[in-house]
């Protein structure tokens, strides 16, 4: 196992936890959205506007395919686990943790975010449907499901770190 992937819906804490995990385990941390934005020189809304969601999805797969083979933590975008190809790459090249939240918590965190095109173009009901539809696919991609409700970022980080260290020491 080389890479550690964090998957889950927008606003489930992937980036905040990934950053902490990187610090705790002394591993480099990458946020896929940030990396893609840096590589293209565009923001995520600009990429959606210029290339469409399909174009962005291709960039995500390219990122996963071309990423150097190194020990690291990767916070994925919330749609990455929707493609079978991506799920296969993640499971083959690393350990995948699914951060599970309630829609209520998610909505509270993302409803006013202007940098998430899917939030911008969807109603609360549409997002809730998407949240439920995606759940199965997050579960299919993950080696571990991590409950985040009523747990602090540090508690979640400690839990994930303990699972990684346990596997590494076996
Ligand atoms: C998306 C999630 C976003 C980003 C893009 C699309 C999605 O990442 O990749 O806006 O389809 O769920 P976060 O999960 O980091 O917000």
SSE order and pairing:
Layout: E1 3-7, H1 14-25, E2 29-31, H2 32-40, H3 44-66, E3 72-75, H4 84-93, E4 94-100, H5 103-110, H6 117-121, H7 124-141, E5 144-147, H8 153-169
Parallel strand pairs: 1-3, 1-4, 2-3, 4-5
Helix pairs in contact: 1-8, 2-3, 3-4
This protein binds shikimate-3-phosphate (S3P).
Structure description:
The chain is α/β, with parallel strands linked by helices and 170 residues long. The chain has one domain: P-loop containing nucleotide triphosphate hydrolases (Rossmann fold, 3-Layer(aba) Sandwich). The protein is built from 8 helices and 5 strands, in the order E-H-E-H-H-E-H-E-H-H-H-E-H. The protein has helices spanning 14-25, 32-40, 44-66, 84-93, 103-110, 117-121, 124-141, 153-169; strands at residues 3-7, 29-31, 72-75, 94-100, 144-147. The mean pLDDT is 96. The structure holds shikimate-3-phosphate (S3P). Shikimate-3-phosphate binds next to helix 6.
């Amino acid at each position: 196992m080389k890479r550690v992937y964090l998957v889950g819906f927008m606003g489930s804490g992937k980036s905040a936890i990934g950053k902490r995990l990187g610090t705790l385990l002394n591993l480099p941390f990458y946020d896929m959205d940030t990396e893609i934005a840096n590589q293209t020189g565009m923001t995520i809304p600009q990429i959606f506007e210029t290339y469409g969601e399909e174009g962005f999805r291709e960039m995500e797969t390219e990122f996963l395919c071309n990423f150097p083979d190194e020990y690291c933590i990767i916070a994925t975008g919330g749609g990455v686990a929707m493609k079978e190809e991506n799920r296969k790459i993640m499971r083959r090249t690393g350990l995948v943790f699914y951060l599970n939240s309630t829609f209520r918590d998610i909505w509270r965190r993302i409803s006013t975010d202007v940098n998430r095109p899917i939030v911008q173009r969807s109603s609360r009901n549409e997002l809730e449907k998407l949240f439920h539809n995606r759940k199965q696919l997050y579960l299919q991609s993950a080696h571990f499901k991590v409950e985040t409700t009523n747990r602090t970022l540090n508690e979640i980080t400690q839990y994930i770190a303990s699972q990684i260290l346990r596997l590494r020491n076996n």
